[in-house]
Design goal:
The chain has a single domain, classed as Beta Barrel (Maltoporin, Chain A), CATH 2.40.170.20. It is built from 5 helices and 35 strands. It has a 22-stranded antiparallel beta barrel. The chain has a 5-stranded mixed sheet with strand order 1-6-7-4-5, with helices on one face. The longest helix has 12 residues. The chain starts with 5 loop residues before the first helix and ends with a strand.
Length: about 725
């Protein structure tokens, strides 16, 4: 596909809206569409209603009074249920999604890809175990370890370190009621202004959780997972607690891992308009790292590990605990949320060196939402302040082989401060048209104190003041469709691993900034759903984490000018209705992501494509769904075109297609179960490539994808 001609793209998006010609003020809100291959035919009666791709109930405009769901009414004031979250997110004039738990809990529920793998625009490339590269619109796409460029949250509380890096091992798909995805500056609601946006993993509360739930999953390569949860409400108090443990031998040599997780929240309604809630998240992860291979090794010996990684017994071992509180106050037309949190994390990480560091993060937030009629026009104002500060005490030792800690070779104290103030106002100039304007100011600082001076003093500090405005429009064409457009800025400060304090001359990695133009449409009809967005981002100083030598971390540099543009499209079509039973369906679900990321007349790389991400990525499924709860069908994961592993565009990752199949039964309560087969043809492919400036056939940049695997599970809900 050639690079996008944006005038034609905009015309195409407008054409999609032409059949929706009736203007109507509606009775409830139109949620965003997430085309999911894992939709369940039924839901538990204990849960809030959800809007699935095959939901035939009429949807409606967020401008109507019924589109203003107020928390409470027997539910939680601090945590919206799925329907309330879906209604709220639909007020965003940009690409967003809510993924209900009914979309990911009837499968292995092992990794973050099981949650977000069907959301267009979200790229998930697995490394080993639960670890993956997570990218939205090209955020952090060159990182060989960790992730950045997205604000990840649990119940609105950050899970990244204060400098912006995050891991995915804490994400337990069995713990959440739903997951919110805000792409790019559409995450302003959470104070996020990064290129990728924000992802918020939301637990149930005792007011919408099952009194008892348990599941057992097992599968190929030694995968075993158990999970149990309980929830309930007793007058003004409620609780939800879930714990899980999983282990796997791993597809590759030297990739064993096991992880234990505890997630809980406890709420108390002080009055009908005041509620406070406490959160606890505790996690322990032990993993061996197989390391990257050459392309030849990855394709011909995909189960092998890098021998140097094995000899050094490279590992990633993390213990963490997070405690937080959130309180909500409700007034006539205004809701105020505020809270505090603290995080302790210990990382024991023998790699080419033996890294031992402790993270101490703390922060708070306050947000007010005012929704009222002013001068005959509905107006909605959201404003808030976020504080995320922390320290990292990190020591580097020699790895004497076999993960034996040797002499100290470096020691640092890192301090990071981030203060964000933001506001966004939506003025409905017509009952079904909202004009949106907002902005965010970020003050960020990074301070490094060198505590090992025999190799010189590498202490230093830097700070940034960054402003990111946004304007947009949201048009509810009728009760079942929307069109939106926006222009926004984004800005990100560097993380500590940039190593920008080695000497005064090397403090040259600047903040990444960019401007995004976006247009899109979403909607649903009884047997047809769609969610399509087109965007173009022009970046300055894009962070690139480039591998320069084997067995060592990448070096972060700024690219000059780059362009990220693409299409995110989700479609769902029902056909052969009532073929074998009344109200049965066969659904065709498609999620397509087109990513055209390239340099913009770079002095060295010209207009070369940026590495590490495929230009086309398609997931498609044919799923038969019986009203009794039975479902079955095949699906494919297809990368039809090669992508590059380096800026020079000299080494490619080959196209591939994976065939999968699943079958199961879920009636909402009682017993349910599934069997899922992945990569049935045992196709060899590369799942992740770390990036280099110029790569050769000997470059060790590749993680092979998993071979044929079968999973099965049983679940019981009261």
């Amino acid at each position: 596909m050639p690079r996008l001609t944006w005038a034609l793209c905009a015309a195409g998006a407008a054409a999609l809206a032409l059949p929706q010609t009736t203007f109507a003020q509606s009775e409830s809100s139109l949620p965003p569409i997430v085309v999911q291959g894992s939709q369940k035919p039924k839901r538990s009666a204990t849960r809030a209603p959800r809007r699935a791709a095959n939901d035939t109930r009429p949807a409606a405009s967020p401008t109507s009074p019924a589109a203003l769901p107020r928390p409470g009414g027997g539910g939680s004031l601090t945590v919206p249920n799925t329907a309330q979250a879906t209604a709220a997110i639909a007020r965003t004039p940009g690409a967003v999604a809510v993924v209900a738990d009914t979309e990911f809990k009837n499968g292995p529920a092992n990794t973050v890809k099981d949650i977000l793998g069907w959301v267009p625009g979200v790229i998930l490339q697995m490394r080993y175990g639960p670890d993956a590269r997570l990218s939205i619109r090209g955020s952090g796409l060159t990182r060989g370890y960790g992730n950045r460029g997205i604000n990840p949250m649990m119940d609105g509380i950050p899970i990244s370190t204060s400098d912006g890096l995050f891991d995915l091992y804490e994400v337990d798909p069995t713990a959440y009621r739903y997951v919110e995805v805000f792409k790019g500056a559409n995450a302003l609601r959470y104070g996020a202004n990064s290129l990728g946006g924000a992802i918020n993993f939301v637990m149930p509360t005792g007011r919408d959780a099952s009194p008892f739930e348990a599941r057992f999953d097992a599968g190929s390569f030694g995968y075993v997972k158990t999970q149990v949860s309980s929830g309930g409400a007793y007058g003004p108090a409620d609780y939800f607690i879930t714990t899980s443990a999983q282990r796997e031998d791993g597809y590759r040599e030297h990739s064993q891992s096991h992880v234990e997780r505890l997630n809980a929240n406890f709420g108390y309604q002080i009055s009908p308009d005041v509620e406070t809630r406490f959160y606890i998240n505790a996690n322990s992860w032990r993993a061996r790292i197989p390391g990257e291979l050459t392309k030849d090794m990855a394709m011909n010996s995909p189960r092998s590990a890098n021998p140097v990684w094995v000899q050094q017994d490279q590992q990633r071992n993390i213990d963490s605990i997070r405690i937080a509180n959130k309180t909500t106050l409700r007034f006539d037309s205004t809701t105020v949320d505020f809270g505090l949190y603290g995080l302790e994390r210990h990382v024991m990480h023998p790699i080419y060196q033996w890294l031992d560091f402790r993270v101490h993060d703390y922060g708070g937030f306050a947000r007010a939402t005012d929704d009222r009629v002013i001068g005959g026009f509905r107006n909605r104002l959201v404003g808030g302040v976020n504080v995320q500060n922390g320290t990292i005490d990190i020591d580097y030792f020699t790895n004497l082989a076999n993960a034996v800690k040797g002499p100290l070779v470096a020691s640092y104290g890192w301090k990071s401060k981030n203060i964000t103030a933001y506001a966004e106002n939506s003025l409905y100039v017509l009952p079904n048209v909202a004009l949106v304007a907002g902005g965010q100011f970020l003050h960020a600082s990074r301070d490094q104190q060198d505590r090992f001076l025999s190799d010189g003093d590498q202490s230093g500090s830097r700070s940034w003041d960054l402003f990111s405005p946004k304007v947009g429009v949201l048009w509810d064409i009728d009760s079942a469709s929307q069109v939106y457009a926006n222009v926004s800025r984004n800005a990100e400060a560097p993380t500590f691993d940039v190593n920008s304090f080695q000497s005064p001359a090397s403090s040259s990695v600047n903040a990444q900034t960019g401007t995004t133009y976006e247009i899109g449409t979403r909607g649903r009809k009884p047997d047809f759903t769609w969610d399509i967005s087109l965007y173009r981002t022009q970046l300055r100083n894009e962070f690139q984490c480039l591998t320069t030598a084997p067995w060592s971390p990448c070096t972060v540099v700024n690219a000059d000018r780059t362009v990220h543009q693409g299409i995110e499209a989700g479609l769902g079509v029902a056909f052969l209705k009532s073929a074998f039973a009344q109200d049965d369906r066969i659904w065709l679900n498609i999620a397509y992501t087109y990513s055209d990321f390239h340099f913009d007349n770079d002095a060295r790389y010209g207009f070369n494509r940026l590495p590490a991400v495929p230009p086309h990525y398609v997931r498609a499924e044919l799923l038969y769904k019986h009203p009794s709860g039975f479902y079955a069908g095949p699906n494919v994961e297809w990368m039809p075109r090669a992508f590059f592993a380096d800026n020079a565009n000299s080494l490619t990752v080959d196209p591939y297609a994976l065939l999968n199949f699943r079958i199961g039964y879920d009636a909402g309560k009682g017993w349910s179960g599934y069997v899922e087969a992945r990569n049935l043809l045992d196709t060899r492919y590369i799942s992740t490539a770390i990036a280099a400036g110029t790569a050769t056939a000997a470059s060790e940049l590749f993680n092979p994808g998993m071979g044929r695997a079968i999973y099965g599970g049983l679940r019981y809900r009261m």
